[in-house]
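REQUEST ID: PR-0412
SUBMITTED BY: lab tech R.K.
PRIORITY: routine
TASK: structure prediction, single protein chain
INPUT:
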Amino acid sequence: MIPKYRKQFNKEFSDEKYSQLKGILAEKGGIEPTFRISESPIFLTKEFESKLIDASESIISQIKTLPAEILQKAIPDNCRVPNDTDKPHFFTIDFGICRSENGAIEPQLIELQAFPSLYVFQKVYEETYCEVYPFLSEIRNPMSHETFKNHLKELIVGDENPENVILLEIFPEKQKTAIDFSLTEKLLGIKTVCLTKVKKEGLKLYYENDEKHTEIKRIYNRVIFDELDNIPDLKTEFDFREEVDVKWITHPNWFFKISKFLLPLLKHQFVPKSYFLHEFPEHESLENFVLKPLFSFAGSGVNLNPTIEITSAIKDKENYILQRKVNYEPLFEDINREFSKAEIRLLYIWRENDEYPILLENLGRMTKAAMVNVDFNKKDAIWIGSSNAFFG
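STATUS: complete
OUTPUT:
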């Protein structure tokens, strides 16, 4: 993919430059990334970018036509949060980089979420690649740092004083995405607050900001709500399901509404056929499908080789889908002439008065393993881990 840039990057690459890349990221974030940083960006053609955008626009248009009651069905009864919104503020779509039966390189939808990914980190990551390898500036994301900042600030902070806006997470210092929290604080002037530190008085929420009792008016939510039940002895004053006087960015209900729940409803040449497990037709063969729980995060619970014994043992079949397998193509050549596979996540924001979301940035993942999520990159290899895509 784009041989010119791949050749130049591999020629310029060195362990020293990789250390420089990681060092600059750690300096900018104030902490080191705790996930693996790939040595290399992903180079993709403009033609492939057009396919990505075409598929994304089709998916977004289809979702816009779905009745609200269909989306509401995706929310588990014990996870319903009051004061829902008409649109999600964040929208991300994951595509595998695959080869079709006719030999063309094309995207294939893997999943989609209305949940903020590493938006600020990815912008800084892209900029850092360009600092270490200046030739990449020729094909960098055309959105300037200032425009990116203004978009996020308008969305997350809005008209409020930044001290009344928090990034909410559970034990943020323990999260793998902590460097993104730090970079977001620096970019927007907001604080990261642990859910256990939030105080509730009537309908108002508060936190201690430099020993000052400060009202929370907007929450940039990074909590995976349905995972809270898995934390033993968790004590909080505030329950998501309570009525409170805050603005959610984005509202927790959207985590469920824009999820694998939608995959069986979407149609496009770059959307693999999917079924809810309880609706899997007899004419299909299990060996051609991947089993996925609806609301898992970071690849947990995914079974690449489901069997009839495994699927029969599942009691809540409506909470699982079977998605037709796609073949990630090993396209990305490293300095040892070995090849990595990859997927790309498009990072959109969706302002409340806009018909369609705005594409801000992308997130890449590279692997030489069976699964692309960075947690599954156990092999001692290069060109694996978190990355960023450049189109030329």
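NOTES: Residues 46-65 form the longest helix (20 residues).
REVIEWED BY: pending
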